[in-house]
Design brief:
Radius of gyration: 15 Å
Distance between the termini: 18 Å
Helix content: 10-25%
CATH architecture: Sandwich
Structural class: alpha+beta
Number of helices: 2
CATH superfamily: q2cbj1_9rhob like domain
CATH topology: Jelly Rolls
């Protein structure tokens, strides 16, 4: 199985609270793996949630969802979550997007990413464009846009967020780690 979807991982009230937690004035322009900025590849504002403080409940929900999904769909060797939760905002005014990329990269943390989970924090009718697409080789898969739904996929898979043409899209991303793929 290449992807796994979880409908209604978070309620509407919970998605609003996650966005509120991310809007603490620490948003910054998102970069690529290694922190390099390249606006032709990625345009988004990001913030990081304190997964052991006010947003601990968010991380607890993600960990539980990943455990269930990994057992049912992937069966990867997942050992930990070394990165905080990332909230990204893709805005029409900035032509927010993230071109084709994988989540595995150089560095001591990124090379151990095994699964990526992306949760939809915006109502689908509040924006146009902004779809999360996952490359399946000869086709691409568009993740569900249902508020609170989550999509899991192997971190080595190419994926993108197409440009937002109207409104603003928020998403929550977490990476699950384990021994390097062999």
């Amino acid at each position: 199985m290449f992807t796994h979807s979880l409908p209604k991982l978070f309620s509407k009230t919970e998605t609003q609270e996650i966005i509120r937690l991310s809007e603490d004035g620490r948003q910054k322009r998102g970069g690529l793996v290694g922190g390099i900025r390249h606006d032709n590849i990625r345009r988004a504002e990001i913030s990081w949630l304190d997964d052991q403080g006010s947003a601990a409940w968010v991380m607890d929900r993600i960990v539980d969802a990943v455990a269930r999904s990994n057992r049912d769909a992937f069966q990867f060797d997942i050992t930990d979550f070394k990165e905080r939760l990332q909230v990204a905002a893709y805005d029409e005014a900035d032509e927010g997007h993230y071109d084709w990329h994988s989540d595995i990269g150089d560095g001591p943390i990124a090379r151990h990413r095994k699964l990526t989970i992306v949760t939809q924090l915006s109502e689908a009718e509040n924006y146009e464009g902004g779809e999360l697409e996952i490359n399946l080789g000869s086709a691409s898969y568009s993740a569900p846009k249902e508020l609170g739904s989550a999509t899991l996929f192997a971190s080595f898979m190419l994926h993108r967020v197409v440009p937002v043409q109207k409104g603003q899209r928020f998403s929550l991303t977490c990476w699950c780690h384990g021994p390097q793929f062999r």
